[in-house]
Every structure is written in structure tokens, then in C-alpha cells.
Amino acid sequence: MADRKPIDSWLTDMDGVLIHEGVPIPGADAFLKKLRESGKPFLVLTNNSIYTPRDLHARLRRMGLDVPIENIWTSALATAQFLDDQRPEGTAYVIGEAGLTTALHDIGYILTDHEPDYVVLGETRTYSFEAMTKAVRLINDGARFICTNPDETGPSAEGALPATGAVAALITKATGKQPYFAGKPNPLMMRTGLNTIGAHSETSAMIGDRMDTDVLAGMEAGMQTFLVLTGLTRPEQVEDFPYRPSKVVDSIADLVDRI
């Protein structure tokens, strides 16, 4: 880390870093306040594609965290950016919520189940057998398979929920086709996010609570990485991975003075 350039821009995961089960993590407000006052470019990232940035801005504000809409980057936005680069003004059959459908509408995509260019799978709390069956048939007929993120489970008050990665595995099993995942740990999500704020990986840092998504994606995108211990990864698990974060800290509160 001594050989790295000073950090001029920050990317941070949301769940497990800034909030936990709908409650702000101590230090999150101070960290965001200092970022805003510093004028340094920053993004709050989430693999969850359910909500639009406007939705997330409102949800965070209710928790007492002020994150401007333009500083929120979701896997849905990364997916839309990828599709816009690959096949502008294309067509897609979408399984997902407003966060994903809005992002695709905003890039000029037509959502249809008639010979779409892509089947795009995102997060939803209402996965239906009918929609999955349609996705399987469209992929078998030639549609390309895209997923917003590979997370296999998501949290809820009652326990784990099957998430995008688990449903993608079902569709893959039925079609023999692997999807392209746009969200973390794909460094594409980091690079497209950095581009939106005009930042460079050499002078950027990624903060996350997961070794297998946040730290991996940040490292592969060429950024410094900070692992916080307020989320899923425990200290003893760090050594289980063949790569390491630049630094492990207890929480986001330990990074306020680094801005």
C-alpha cells in the first residue's frame, strides 16, 4: 500500500458496510458526510437490482444517510450500460423489478417476449414458474442470457431467500447456457462505475464486507481494497482466500480519517 497513489475516489458497498438489516452502521453517516464535504468522487454500490437509484436514495435517507441519486450505482445500471455498449436499442425479455426495467427503458431498450435479443434475469421477490419457463424457451430459441448478479441467496428477516444466482442455475440446467453476470465480482461493474464519476482505478478504493465479491472485484479492477468486518466475512475467513484485501478494518468508522 505504501507504493500506491493517494486515494482520490471511493467506491463502497451498501449492505454490510453502511447499513445492516435496515439500520445504519456506526460511522456510516460520518463517512458519507466527510466524502460529500471533500468533493471527492464516490459511489455507493449494490448488487441488488430491485430498486432504482431514486428508490435507494429515499430508503437511505429514511435511515438518516444522505447519498445523492447520482452517487448510487446498481447491478441493474451496470447491466444496462453493458447492453447499451453491446447492442444499442436492442430488445429484452426481463425477469426483475423496477430497478432493472427502468434502467433498460432509460437506454432505449424495448421489453418484449417476442424474439428478444436477450433474456435478462434480475432480482425479484416474485419469481414465477411461468416466467422461468418462458426464459428457458427464449434462450433455447437463441436469446442471449444475461444476469444482473451471481448472488445465490439474499437476506430477509425470516432467513435466506433464493436470489438471482440460484434462479440462473435453474435456467442454465434447463438450457445448457451459462449467463453473463454484469454485477460483482465482475470488475465490469467497478469499471463502468468509475467511468460514470470520471475516476481512475489507480487512485480509487473499494470498501466491502465480502471477500468473494467486493474485494475480488475491486482487486481485479486495479483498486485498493478495504474489508470491513461488519458484514458477512469473518476475520478467520480472510486466510481461506488466495487473495487478500489491501487492509482489513473493523468498520467504516475506521476509514473516516482516510478521506
Automatic annotation (TrEMBL):
Alphabetized CDD domains for the sequence: HAD_Pase_UmpH-like
Keywords, ordered alphabetically: Carbohydrate metabolism, Hydrolase, Magnesium, Metal-binding
Q: How is the cofactor bound?
A: Divalent metal ions. Mg(2+) is the most effective.
Lyase: present as a keyword of the record?
no
Q: Name one GO cellular component term.
A: cytoplasm
Short name of any one Pfam family annotated for the protein: Hydrolase_6
Q: Which domain of life is it from?
A: Bacteria
Which InterPro entries does this chain map to? HAD-like_sf, HAD-SF_hydro_IIA, HAD_sf
Entry keyword annotation includes Isomerase: no
Q: Which cofactor does it need?
A: Mg(2+)
Annotated residues for binding of Mg(2+): 13, 15, 209
The entry marks the following residues as binding substrate, namely 184
What is the active site of this protein? 13 (nucleophile), 15 (proton donor)
Q: Which GO terms describe its molecular function?
A: metal ion binding; phosphatase activity
Database matches in NCBIfam families: HAD-SF-IIA (TIGR01460)
Q: Which PANTHER family match?
A: 4-NITROPHENYLPHOSPHATASE-RELATED, HALOACID DEHALOGENASE-LIKE HYDROLASE DOMAIN-CONTAINING PROTEIN 2
Belongs to which family?
Belongs to the HAD-like hydrolase superfamily.
Q: What is this protein called?
A: HAD family hydrolase
